[in-house]
Design goal:
By secondary structure, this protein is mostly helical. Helices cover about 85% and strands about 0% of the residues. Helix 1 runs antiparallel to helix 2 (about 45-55), helix 5 (about 90-115) runs antiparallel to helix 6 and helix 6 runs parallel beside helix 10 (about 200-220).
């Protein structure tokens, strides 16, 4: 029964994503094609029109990238209400959504790689780094979306505007504080070895993903039905 409900969550997520993808691709590619056709009518340059058409796969890939992030950013509360109505627990909902995240990310990443093959040969290192970036951004959107699902409309506006501004101020303060430490840190051989080490980046990435995953799971478990 639990596996069936988890599969139901995944299939529903993919149905929602497919519907949104169809609409977004229809509008995005339609507007781009109309723009190219208007350019052809005005300039009568068929060669330029045919070159422009080659950009359509890139546009489609970009639309899919945006949708991948948007779906997990804006749907957590809607998915939660749907899960409650269908007798699905928070744990099962979380499992279904996180599996959907990985599967959708793989699909979008694979399509992006196919599009990139039209412009450049396949590079395993770049593809691997790209996949990590996709998963990191997707998981970040899940954490943010689940966090916003805890808030009503008023607090969404407050947090949505205030939090980025507060982060910007904190980053500026941190950068200003580090200015005086840079000469001393630069003179430290240990600090230099840490900065240039490849391991440092991987450690930071792993710590970041653990924190974001924990926040996303925590927010998921705290979502409640509310009156907006």
């Amino acid at each position: 029964m639990k596996n069936q409900k988890r599969s139901l969550v995944i299939s529903t997520m993919f149905q929602q994503a497919g519907h949104a993808t169809g609409i977004a691709l229809g509008w995005g590619l339609g507007i781009a094609l109309i723009t190219y056709l208007l350019g052809l009518i005005i300039s009568h340059n068929l060669e330029s029109f045919l070159v422009s058409l080659q950009a359509l796969p890139d546009i489609a890939s970009s639309i899919l990238n945006v949708l991948l992030m948007a779906i997990f950013l804006v749907t957590p509360y809607t998915d939660f209400k749907w899960a409650i109505q269908n007798g699905i627990s928070r744990k099962t909902l979380w499992q279904g959504r996180i599996l959907s995240l990985f599967l959708m990310t793989l699909v979008v990443w694979f399509i992006a790689q196919l599009v990139d093959l039209m412009n450049a040969p396949f590079d395993l290192v770049s593809a691997w780094h790209s996949l990590l970036s996709y998963f990191s951004l997707s998981l970040t959107m899940v954490a943010i979306g689940n966090g916003f699902a805890l808030l009503n409309r008023r607090w969404k506006w407050i947090v949505g505007i205030g939090l980025p501004m507060a982060c910007l101020v904190l980053l500026m303060m941190l950068a200003y504080s580090l200015v005086g430490l840079i000469p001393a840190l630069s003179a430290s051989g240990v600090f230099k070895s840490i900065i240039i080490s490849n391991v440092t980046g991987w450690v930071i990435l792993v710590i970041y993903l653990i924190i974001v995953y924990a926040l996303a799971r925590f927010f998921n478990n705290k979502i409640q039905l509310r009156r907006d």
